[in-house]
């Protein structure tokens, strides 16, 4: 099984961090970011098992994994038994960093896509993993999973805390998480829904923040999982014809890790890594889902934001063409700005059904996933430079010392201080 990153090892550019001649960007007075290189997203494809409903409809299989990286999609209108068929133009093969079919376990998907990001995150790099694809194709299964087959959220958090534990003799960590959903273009805090709808703000360094979101600090995987499960119960899910428990919102789990050395020194740095794990709502065809009323309205919002995401992917993958990337079209793309074309190692896991009835959705998902491979992101280490503050205080202290010396000199120049009686006499003169 090939993988995006080698297990427990940093990707080559990250490993070469110490030897690379890095660019140094001052991202603000107290924040430095060191560029370590360009990256393309890791794009994985998962073909879920055929469902009972599809079997009952007499579905045939049209999507196949050929090897660890190649997937073939056949046009269902073509007769596979016709040996004379000359026109196979609509049968297409796609190459990905890694491909999975119904035989793949949750552990295999996690190891090949996400596990390799953890070491970077605890050392101050940003990373994003997102599940993409049509409704009912297995995104929530991959990200959240089940009690028996936990998905990427649980496995990542388990390994993240294990990695922290392994280096905690030398390093001090602070981990916090937030969990939100974007439902009908509105942001809701899943850890504290009573906060109402939240706004997106861009800080002075261009980093997108959700104003007022609950950030829970913890260093305990079990505690995070309990919060996640609680938050997930708040997520908007409804039965649709395509999926009995269809997620009607995009769910974003953000884990922030701050790392600093236990050895206190004057040049101490705090490294801040952010990991986004995103379970997108599924794209859907109104005709297939038979949605009406509220479900149809939700579907329109979902499709609109996924279209905005698709447009960003298109524009970003055509950098040579100099296309403008419009992140502002939806909350989803604004939130994913850094993950898509900015400072992040990004993994996209596209999902499709193997059935002939899903041909059009599968084809467009494969096309988007294929385009996403040519996006480039610039990965930088995020440093909150404590030494900057120390330098500031040192220079303030030096200034104050200089001022004291100047005043002392002035007093000395003015001669000895008048005695108390002289002061009384001076006051008397003034009256
Ligand atoms: N790889 C898989 N192995 C076993 N079951 C799967 C797999 N992928 C999906 N399923 C099952 O298929 C059904 C639909 O999956 P899921 O809810 O994850 O789809 P989704 O893409 O998140 O859908 P939506 O966009 O509507 O929320 C679920 O019952 C899920 O358990």
Automatic annotation (TrEMBL):
PROSITE patterns: KINESIN_MOTOR_1, KINESIN_MOTOR_2. Its main location: other. One of its GO terms (cellular component) is microtubule. It is found in: Cell projection, Cilium; Cytoplasm, Cytoskeleton. InterPro entries: Kinesin-like_fam, Kinesin_motor_CS, Kinesin_motor_dom, Kinesin_motor_dom_sf, P-loop_NTPase. Residues 40-375 form the Kinesin motor domain. The keyword Electron transport does not apply. ATP binds at residues 133-140. Pfam families: Kinesin. Keywords: ATP-binding, Cell projection, Cilium, Coiled coil, Cytoplasm, Cytoskeleton, Microtubule, Motor protein, Nucleotide-binding. Signal peptide: none annotated. CDD domains: KISc_KIP3_like. GO terms for biological process: axonemal microtubule depolymerization; microtubule-based movement; plus-end specific microtubule depolymerization. GO terms for molecular function: ATP binding; microtubule binding; plus-end-directed microtubule motor activity. It comes from the Eukaryota. Plus end-directed microtubule-dependent motor protein that regulates the length of motile cilia by mediating depolymerization of microtubules at ciliary tips. Belongs to the TRAFAC class myosin-kinesin ATPase superfamily. Kinesin family. This is Kinesin-like protein. The lineage of its organism: Eukaryota, Metazoa, Chordata, Craniata, Vertebrata.
């Amino acid at each position: 099984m090939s993988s995006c990153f080698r297990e427990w090892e940093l990707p080559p550019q990250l490993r070469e961090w110490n030897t690379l001649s890095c660019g140094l960007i001052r991202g603000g007075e107290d924040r430095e970011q060191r560029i370590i290189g360009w990256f393309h997203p890791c794009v994985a494809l998962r073909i879920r098992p055929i469902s009972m409903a599809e079997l009952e409809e007499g579905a045939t299989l049209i999507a196949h994994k050929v090897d660890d990286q190649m997937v073939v999609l056949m046009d269902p209108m073509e007769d596979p038994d016709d040996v004379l068929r000359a026109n196979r133009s609509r049968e297409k093969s796609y190459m990905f960093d890694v491909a999975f079919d119904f035989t793949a376990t949750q552990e295999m998907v996690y190891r090949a896509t996400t596990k390799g990001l953890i070491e970077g995150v605890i050392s101050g790099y940003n990373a994003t993993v997102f599940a993409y694809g049509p409704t009912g194709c297995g995104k929530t299964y991959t990200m959240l999973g089940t009690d028996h087959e936990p998905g990427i959220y649980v496995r990542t958090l388990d390994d993240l805390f294990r990695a922290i534990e392994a280096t905690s003799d030398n390093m001090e960590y602070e981990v916090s998480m937030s969990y939100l959903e974007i439902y009908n273009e509105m942001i809701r805090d899943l850890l504290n829904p009573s906060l109402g709808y939240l706004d997106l703000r861009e800080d002075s360094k261009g980093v997108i923040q959700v104003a007022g979101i609950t950030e829970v600090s913890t260093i305990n995987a079990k505690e995070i999982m309990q919060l996640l499960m609680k938050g997930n119960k708040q997520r908007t899910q409804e039965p649709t014809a395509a999926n009995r428990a269809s997620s009607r919102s995009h769910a974003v789990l953000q884990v922030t890790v701050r790392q600093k050395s236990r050895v206190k020194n004057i040049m101490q740095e705090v490294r801040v890594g952010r990991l986004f794990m995103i379970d997108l709502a599924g794209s859907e065809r109104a005709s297939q889902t038979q949605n009406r009323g509220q479900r149809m309205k939700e579907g329109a919002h979902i499709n609109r934001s996924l279209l905005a995401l698709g447009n960003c992917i298109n524009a970003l993958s055509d950098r040579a063409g100099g296309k403008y990337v419009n992140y502002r079209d939806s909350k989803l793309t604004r939130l994913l700005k850094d993950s898509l074309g900015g400072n992040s190692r990004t993994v996209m896991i596209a999902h499709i059904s193997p059935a002939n009835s899903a041909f059009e959705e599968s084809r467009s998902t494969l096309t988007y996933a294929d385009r996403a491979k040519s996006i480039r992101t610039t990965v930088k280490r995020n440093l909150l430079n404590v030494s900057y503050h120390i330098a500031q205080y040192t220079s303030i202290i030096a200034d104050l010392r200089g001022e004291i010396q100047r005043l002392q000199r002035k007093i000395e120049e003015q001669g000895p201080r008048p005695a108390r009686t002289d002061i009384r006499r001076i006051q008397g003169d003034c009256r």
